[in-house]
Amino acid sequence: MENSWGINYNNIIEQCIVAVIVAVILGILSKLLKYQLKNRIVIFIRRIQLCLFPTKFNIAISINCEDKSESEKYYKEINKQFAIIVRDYGLSKYLVLKDISKVKTFYSTEIAEKFVKNKDLDLLIWGDASMDGLKENDIDITKFKLYFTYNLPRDKRDKENQIGKLINFDINSHLATKNYLQILKKDSSKDVEIITNNLFDITLYIVGISSRLFGRIEISKDIFEVLYNKTKEDGKEFKLAVFANLVDCYKLIIFNAITNKIRNDFIKAQECCEKILVLNPNNYFGLVNLAYIKYKLGYTDKAKDIVDQ
User: Fold this and answer.
1) Are 93 and 202 part of one and the same domain?
2) Mean per-residue pLDDT for 112-121?
């Protein structure tokens, strides 16, 4: 519609509407940023990315060693054996090991945390290795002082980070059971193997927990299955923690199947129920849900047998 001066009011109205919509959108975005929801959005995008794409977990090791020292030789051997263990346990599809020892030296937790975020790492193992005249019963000894900085999701609504503190407490309490981090020169090959295995177990535990928090239940299950089979003969405390996390993964897969009601999910859930019953034949949760899933898959007689059991 135009007036005598050739002004098109319809165009003006349309432009005003577009301007208002843009202003509203910008206002909403500014509010989101103002209330520090950026991190929550990043976490949400990260979870979607992990669910849709085969993202690997990036692990970096950075241990500060003196050049040409015995400790540097030990560190290189630990790094080499760690990569071999990842390969031998078939976890190369999940874990990527990056050696950044010549790139960065860390002097504080804050610096390590910033590096993890900037480089999109999931776990950074860092610290120092030193001989410095250390001896035990007149035998040269190399001691490693290591730290583990990992990337876990955090909800800004949890202002005191209570969830993060609980997770950190859980992880750190079990790191204490894997704290053999020294090498006696006369038993160097044996000690390197012990340290490497301890680092590997700690890494799997952290990756297993973080992958579950990011929504990768299947990966978390696979990780804890490897760790459970590997640590069957380990100390009771660490083994029980691994067992509890593994069962939690099975339960989450079962819950998802019951909620989604998709046949392929029911088949996966059936396997998880059976695995729970292998670990504990009288587990009520496993029996009840196996009966229900058998029924949903059309195995009515088998479901009835389980109920009768």
Assistant:
1) yes
2) 85
